[in-house]
Write a structure and sequence with these properties.
This protein is an alpha+beta fold and about 80 residues long. About 30% of the residues lie in helices and about 35% in strands.
């Protein structure tokens, strides 16, 4: 499996509670696509949210985000992690 970092834009003002709720929404259905969301980060001022996951493909990551109601704007493979 490959790790992916996805990016969401336009989420200005997101709170810690909203970020946690979005992350949990992904986790509730992730197994249906073979994805495991590891962590999420947000910058409320810029409205940018980042999610790190392990998945069989970027398409699988996007399907989970689409179904959870917050599609990713970018998905990047992250082949090297230390």
């Amino acid at each position: 499996m490959t790790r992916f970092m996805d990016v969401h834009h336009g989420m200005e003002g997101i709170t810690a509670g909203q970020l946690m709720a979005a992350h949990r929404a992904d986790q509730e259905i992730e197994s249906e696509e073979g994805v495991r969301f590891e962590r999420a980060w947000a910058d409320p001022e810029s409205g940018t949210v980042y999610c790190l996951s392990e998945a069989p493909s970027a398409d699988a990551v996007q399907r989970v985000h689409d179904r959870a109601g917050h599609p990713a704007d970018e998905i990047h493979p992250v082949p090297l992690v230390v």
